[in-house]
Amino acid sequence: MLKLGITRGLSKINPSVWQPIIKSDFFTSTCQNTGTLHFEREWKPPINVKGWPSKLHARHSIYRVVGRELGPTELKVILTKDSLEFGVAGEVLVLEKMIGRSMINKGEATYASPENLEKFASHSINKSPQTTTGRRLLLWLRTTQLECPMRSDVSWVMTPAIAARGLQRAHNLVVAENALELPDYPITSDNPDSWSQHDIKISVNGIDTITVKMNIIQWNKENKNL
Question: Could you give the CA distance from residue 26 to residue 38 in angstroms, rounded to a whole number?
Fold first, then answer.
């Protein structure tokens, strides 16, 4: 049992000059690490005579913990910078309090207060017709090296359908054939230059088109599941 107050030297205290700090039988204390603690006097003071204050002694300043309330463990924030792990700028997320405070300290997010929500609602990013999921995909495409595994023991000619299938196998990325544009030169298994990087264009929701590099690699036993 946790007790707060004076536990030693009670006989040395002059009751005529000692005044307790807390005069209530119950009180609460809020701490950053332990939440809100509720305290109760260990020894309650006697009932006072009407018109006269209670006679409090040193032992009446000893309290014990009778309850504990933990604060919220999550924090609602607005991302101010793009993050591959959490989302894109302007997105409102609910994160663990420790992670949210760390991102706020680094300048990667801010508190989702009514004022900040109103501020970011008028931001140019949120006025874009692109969806949040589309913006996340664009961020991933800009920071990822795409690979398309192809077999070297058979003849093939690269088409949007084959490229889409290869990206799905390698990255679990589903791209429609009409949303993928290959270079204007042929890419075949017979051409040694085909086994290299190529610039392809991917359209996201028909709104934004991004040019990314796709590296054609040889399929082997190590990546046979691709």
Answer: 7
Task: Return d(Cα 80, Cα 162) in angstroms, integer.
Answer: 38
Q: Given this structure, which CATH class describes domain 74-127?
A: alpha beta
Q: How confident is the model at residue 25 (pLDDT cuts 50, 70, 90)?
A: low
Higher pLDDT, residue 13 or 143:
143
pLDDT at 220 over 80: no
* Cβ neighbours of residue 20 closer than 8 Å, sequence gap 6 or more: 56, 60, 61
* pTM of structure: 0.65
Domain ranges of the chain: 3-69, 74-127, 137-223
DSSP bridge pairs for 146: 214
Handedness of CA 118, 124, 130, 134 (dihedral sign): negative
Q: Which long-range contacts (CB under 8 A, 24 or more apart) does 92-100 make?
A: 92/117, 97/72, 97/73, 100/74, 100/75, 100/76
Q: What CATH number should be reported for the domain whose range is 137-223?
A: 3.10.430.100
Q: Give the dihedral of Cα atoms 90, 91, 97, 99; nearest 10 deg.
A: -80
